[in-house]
Amino acid sequence: MTQPTPLIASAVDLDAGPELSLDHDACYRAVSTRDARFDGKIFTGVKTTGIYCRPICPARTPQSRNVLFFPSAAAAQEAGFRPCLRCRPETAPDLGAWRGTSNTVSRALSLIEMGALDEGDVDALAARVGVGERQLRRLFQRHLGASPVAAAQTRRVLLAKQLIHETRLPMAEIALASGFGSIRRFNETFQQLFRRPPSALRRAGAPEISAGPSGEITLMLRYRPPYDWPAMLAFLRLRAIAGVETVDGQVYSRTIALDGAVGTLSVAPAPGADALKAVIRFPRLSSLPAIIARLRRVFDLAADPVAIGAQLAEDPALAPLIAARPGLRVPGAWDGFELAIRAILGQQVTVPAAIALAGKLTAGYGAPLAADAARPGLTHVFPTPQRLATSDLTHLGMPGARARALSAMGAAVAADPAILAGRGGLEDAIARLRALPGIGEWTAQYIALRALREPDAFPAADIGLLRALEDETGRRPTPAELLARSERWRPWRAYAAQHLWASYAPHAEAKPAKARAA
């Protein structure tokens, strides 16, 4: 396959690069040929209609002089264009939080996706990513062509539009589930943007179906292909905690807890689409945006595997691994605290041993689901920081120091729930993590890789990575040698690590390789 035509000027410094510049002629060629490789990367604003489209829109291609190109849906919407009803921009692969432009912007977008601007302002958001408010606005304009507030508003509108098309929920429930503060604001926004009420966007005929007390909603989570679902499922199956997670056939399910409410969800490939199908059962509809955001992080749906693989394949050692698994993703974590506890349990033990301990921990200290919420194999939510902070865990069959580390981690997160949230850059994150009890360099890098979604996190001392790079004589690189070699893999070292783990995993799972044990 030929590489896509470069559309956007790249920069060595991912935050201090030049002003974003789209090549009009290259973009127009992509739109004229309906090249799916650019879906989610560019959006076309049609000046004669006031509509913005995906590059694969089936409508007649407008003349070049009548179009403008934008790097994000938010930029198109902020410029005054409204979403196309035919190609439905809300169904494009969401690459907004992809780390191909600015690390700071990607962290801010992830926080926006988790609701940072629903309860806070841009000043607070900027503080969380370690820059000033004016600098954050400049970075958003440079890399997305839109402000942080516009990005949040566009995400809210597109989620609502997706729910209108993909569910039969009543409009009042869609307004709540997509993050609008009121049905009046929801109606006004759609009237202004689409020149019609939201109900007019839905095909008439089928009756409305409420989410009910369980809050059941089914929707699609799009990604940019290829996607190695078997590898993702194998990773999750090996690490499934009894009572919290199950893998049955092609379906991954788990229990979830947010702000005191509990529920379950299931995820499986959507037949005939570049998407995962999620069935979410959660009693609080207003939590849906946060749940979707977490699912996108768990399944690494914002990645562009073609671009990442192209860079990593420049290393002869990685090239055959990329060719063998072109759609490999980095599995994320549902919850930072849960991942930190998993990582501590997995220090110097095998995967089965670590997961057995996690199961005992959950059975003893996790809250059981109510009978009407439980599903086959899903009986408990993972223990809370407060519960582990005040419990004696020494009887679980682990060294006393490790049991104390678990309780100390619970106490630290209970005192500061944001302590495991992404703030600042990778180096700052590693320093903050290493200050926590029981967290060394390897554990900090692993938490950053999976929970904080840092694409350049790299546990260079991991025995699995060292074994994967053994030469024909059996010599392994030292951690220092591996760290030096990994410089050429930046800023995608987490993906390089995942490829190395995957290449070694078939014959190494029974051995105590620390990263695999978490």
Structural write-up:
This protein is an alpha+beta fold. Helices cover 42% and strands 9% of the residues. The chain contains 23 helices and nine strands. It has helices at residues 24-32, 73-78, 103-113, 116-119, 122-129, 133-143, 148-166, 171-177, 183-194, 229-238, 288-298, 305-312, 319-324, 336-345, 351-365, 385-389, 400-415, 426-434, 441-450, 463-468, 479-485, 493-504, 514-517; strands at 43-46, 51-53, 67-70, 82-83, 216-222, 245-248, 251-258, 261-269, 275-281. It has a five-stranded antiparallel beta sheet with strand order 5-9-8-7-6. Strand 8 (261-269) and strand 9 form a beta hairpin. The longest helix has 19 residues, at 148-166. Mean pLDDT is 88; it is low at 1-6, 8-19 and 507-517.
